[in-house]
Specification:
By secondary structure, this protein is mainly alpha-helical. The chain contains 20 helices and 11 strands. Belongs to the SusD family.
Length: 547
């Protein structure tokens, strides 16, 4: 498969410029020495580390964010989304296999898969390693391979599937059914990882037994294997030392991103020499606050790419009288950092400069306030009739800012390279998986119990009782709402809507930018056109229908 093999030849597997903190090192190796180098403990370790490096090319990056966050019921295009790749959210006829985000995600994961295959194929023959060490290396590589394939099958459907290392150029490809990839690749890979990885990694950020169980719980939920999903999630809840961080807002404290709730995260670093492109998720959910005459760009408020704007559904999803997750997830107040004038009033540094609320405010109050008073009148946030003083105003430049990824520790106000770790698996999701899986099995009381643990943590102090739900409250709409409140912006929503069979209906209902265009074909992405063009057996590897 030629595109898969633009796919580093074996020797290039070790050239990893950007690597996981405390995990990866750069070790370029010439072609002639590759085979002998891989046969050493150091060489196979470096090959594994190179496989980890593919994580940083996906998590926290723009291409991955576009393919997992917008085009859903919760997020649509902000100003920067309209001007950059709007077709992804809108499902327009311009969303084709030539899209660079689709191509980069595809290429990155197939590079990672081939790297993992090289490790898995070669590690058993490495001299100088104990069986336990070999199995740990194999377990980590198989965890990563499972994760890469899991993303690919969800995004693209039936794809090329190989468990063997590709060394030379391959010009043919074959579609393998998604079910086969789960049964022969993803599930057995994770089962092996569970059996062979330690509960706690020697280096933070490496795959563990708990991470493998958590990922397999997500996989089994996606496949509709409810009992297995509940059992795996419940085991992670009960048999490890993970704890929900309280209050919810503290979960996103950048100075505590290796907290007790994190099961597994992708590591970034403050070292500019090894951080590569960094975690760039801080860029995508921000508004251009510098349009306000009293704020200039600073580290605290971030650099605004304005890619993604909350839909009306997301704005109205939280009961702010009792649920702390609105305030814990969104930044709605900005403070002046330079002297200026708003509505004829002098504003000094430290004064409120922007206040965003989710209810209507009378015009006379907005027009006399000593700050921008942005309100919400439940008009579609992307409507042409939205005024500058409403959410969605200023050409989609004014809206509540998801603050989960803000990074005030960057080296400069213009730096895009963030150092915040990207949380991939956390304990709250395990409760949500167990709760949904229990409900699917008609275990309604157990389901409510799981959800109530998450909701109790989310409650505003003194409102814990008001946040409880009963068995009668649990249905698919509640489950999607609760996952939305807990996991907003974390890269799971598109997958959630697809696996629950609600992507089309909910996008049509809640995302008016995408509603006119979305069709059944959009349940998978287009195969990159470069892949289609380069195979010599196009009849066996054609484009996804409709593209």
């Amino acid at each position: 498969m030629k595109k898969i093999n633009t796919f580093l030849s074996t020797a290039l597997l070790l050239i990893s410029l950007f690597s996981c903190q405390d995990i990866l090192e750069e070790n370029p190796v010439g072609l002639a020495a590759a085979d002998s180098y891989y046969a050493t403990p150091k060489g196979i370790s470096d090959a594994l580390n190179a496989t980890y490096s593919r994580l940083r090319v996906f998590y926290g990056q723009e291409d991955a964010s576009f393919l997992t966050v917008p085009g859903t019921d919760m997020y649509t295009n902000g100003f920067g989304g309209v001007t950059n790749h709007p077709a992804v959210n809108d499902y327009s006829t311009n969303f084709l296999g030539t899209d660079t985000f689709v191509t980069s995600v595809w290429n990155n994961f197939y590079v990672g898969i081939n790297q993992a295959n090289a490790v898995i194929n070669r590690a058993p023959a490495v001299a100088g390693l104990s069986d336990a060490e070999k199995n740990r290396i194999l377990g980590e590589a198989r965890f990563l391979r499972a994760l890469f394939y899991f993303h690919l099958v969800q995004q693209f459907g039936d794809i090329h599937f190989s468990l063997q290392e590709s060394v030379g150029v391959q010009t043919t490809a074959k579609r393998t059914p998604v079910a086969t990839i789960y049964e022969q690749g993803i599930v057995p890979d994770l089962q092996f990882a569970i059996a062979n990885l330690p509960a706690k990694a020697a280096n933070y950020g490496r795959a563990t037994k708990a991470a493998s169980e958590a990922l397999l719980a997500r996989v089994q939920l996606t496949r509709g294997n409810w009992a297995e999903a509940e059992a795996l999630a419940s085991n992670v809840i009960k048999n490890y030392s993970f704890q929900l961080v309280k209050p919810y807002a503290n979960l996103w404290d950048i100075n505590n991103d290796q907290n007790a709730e994190v099961i597994w995260s992708v590591q970034f670093t403050s070292d500019v020499l090894t951080n590569g492109d960094g975690n760039q998720a801080h860029l995508f959910f921000l508004i251009d606050y510098t349009q306000n005459p009293t704020i200039v760009r600073d580290l605290a408020n971030g650099r605004a790419y304005q890619r993604f704007m909350p839909t009306n559904y997301l704005i109205k999803l939280f009961d702010q009288t009792k649920d702390s997750r609105w305030e814990g997830s969104f930044k709605t107040v900005f403070f002046a950092n330079t002297k200026g004038t708003i509505n004829g009033k002098t504003v000094m540094p430290g004064d409120t400069a922007i206040k965003i609320v989710t209810y209507p405010v009378p015009d006379n109050v907005q027009n006399t306030a000593p700050y921008w008073y942005i309100d919400f009148n439940d008009k579609w946030v992307g409507a042409s009739t939205i005024t500058n003083n409403e959410i969605g105003g200023g050409q989609r430049r004014r809206f509540p800012v998801l603050k989960k990824f803000l990074d005030p520790l960057r080296i400069s106000v213009n730096a895009v390279e963030g150092r915040r770790d990207f949380i991939v698996l956390r304990l709250a999701e395990m409760y949500l998986i167990a709760g949904e899986a229990a409900w699917r099995q008609n275990k309604l009381a157990e389901s409510a119990t799981y959800f109530n643990v998450v909701r109790t943590r989310a409650a505003i102090s003194g409102k814990e009782k008001d946040m409880q739900v009963s068995a009668a409250d649990i249905n698919l709409e509640f489950i999607l709402d609760e996952r939305g409140r807990e996991l907003a912006g974390e890269g799971l929503r598109w997958y959630d809507l697809k696996r629950t069979g609600t992507l089309l209906t909910r996008v049509k209902q809640y995302n008016l930018d995408a509603a006119p265009n979305i069709k059944e074909m959009h349940l998978v992405r287009p195969i990159p056109q470069t892949q289609i063009d380069r195979v010599t057996n196009p009849s066996e590897f054609s484009q996804n229908p409709g593209y």
